[in-house]
Design a protein that fits this description.
With 88 residues, this protein is α+β, with helices and mostly antiparallel strands. The protein contains two helices and four strands. A hairpin with a 2-residue loop joins strand 2 (66-69) and strand 3 (72-75). The longest helix is centred in the first third of the chain and has 19 residues, at 4-22.
Length: 88
């Protein structure tokens, strides 16, 4: 597992790169040469997010029923798995 600080640094770097490509951050006038560079930045960002926000399974729908959340019922098919952020 990646250390929390390293994962956060990677996430920050990936977000900054993506913002540069989108033109949200104007530094060094960095622009993508083609769409593949943007795709690579998005993949890097998704990877960094997964490392920063590791999810653990907290349950699975094994019987018929309804999950209530904020006064809003949700029906889920059998086999649906539920996840929560892992404490780092």
């Amino acid at each position: 597992m990646t250390a929390p600080n390293a994962a956060e640094d990677e996430l920050t770097s990936a977000l900054f790169t993506l913002k540069c490509y989108r033109g949200e951050v104007a530094i060094n006038h960095k622009r993508p040469n083609d769409l593949r560079e943007i795709d690579q930045a998005i993949i890097k960002l998704e990877s960094a997010i997964k490392k920063t926000n590791e999810m653990v399974e907290i349950g699975e729908m094994r019987e018929s029923g309804v999950i209530w959340h904020k006064q809003n019922p949700h029906a889920h098919p059998l086999g649906t798995k539920f996840y929560a952020l892992k404490d780092i």
